[in-house]
DNA sequence: TTTTTTTTGAAACAATCATTTTAGAATAAC
DNA sequence: GTTATTCTAAAATGATTGTTTCAAAAAAAA
């Protein structure tokens, strides 16, 4: 006995995510969002909620995409070291192609300290990436491609950190070659 | 034939910097600023300028402090490797003590892509840190404390990147031990 | 077809935003 | 002490903020 929602919710979330991604939470106005989502603010508040809830949905969507990507990478039958190297190379590609950096990193620095819910989502996302890398490195050690001198978990943490800095470097210097060289250096370092 | 400015400008900039540092550019209102600086907005606009100019002044102040710190570190008569290790340890302390992360990094992710002037200041700051590290690493190689296998510049870039990620890690995980272990790992890696 | 429920679009909302104006207070130079 | 100039405080500015209201439109159930 009622009308249906007209707009496609997941498409709208995708659009909102792109705006938040580019402008950050505080840099984005409700009008920016409703313009991109092509819906009225009343519809937004009816179905999704306020600005903060929408942001949570967007960040969640972003980390969901990442989780799926990691799962796909794990599913193949390649050697762990090969998956690892591929992951590093793809990370470099994403950094040097994209204009907006990584939404999760931007969110961590903008909201991490002040918004508990956002922080929790990002923390879980970070832990997932850590687990992915840790198990890969661990496997690569078993397969003899990485020396066993260091804790896999430590190397995983270290890569995740380094990777964040590559984003900053590319924002400031726009030097793709620099990022590539750091990637090669990292692979060289863990291999020896 | 006129009245003097009542407030201490550099103290006011310091206070403004602290607010921007914590809340970011878009998260800070003019009231936040004038409250912290304890001046009226008309005084602010008369002497310093608008919000954007004030921010530029704050970021510049921040990077000035950093430059002075680096100069001091270089001035001693210690071995380069020792200065380097000290720098890493101090970086870890700053990360795990502070609540707000690094203002330059936050600024890079919030403003870097959209504000040319801010970007330029941060770029110069980053290059300075790179030069500092590059010359230290180079000297440490001459002194036999670091193998000559890699380009000093590359290792410097790599450390600067990693260091950025430590901030993110600490925001999300608040795990000081994790940061310390990554620091030790880095020193171990460049030494071998 | 009518009823009932929900969504939608447009307008309205108060609050806050960055910025400016205005009038008076302060002080250096004369 | 007067004058000239600049500063400060408070209020006003119009624009924009996030959010809500309300009447009309839509459509599923009766």
Describe the protein.
The structure is a homodimer of 192-residue chains. By secondary structure, chain A is an all-alpha fold. Chain A has a domain at 62-191: Tetracycline Repressor, domain 2 (Orthogonal Bundle). Chain A is built from nine helices and no strands. In chain A, helix 1 packs across helix 2 (30-37), helix 4 (51-75) packs parallel to helix 7 (116-142) and helix 7 crosses helix 8. The longest helix of chain A has 27 residues, at 116-142. The first copy, chain A, is elongated, with a radius of gyration of 19 Å. The N and C termini of chain A lie far apart (68 Å).
List key phrases describing it.
homodimer, mainly alpha, elongated, 9 helices, DNA-binding, Tetracycline Repressor, domain 2, 77% helix, 192 residues
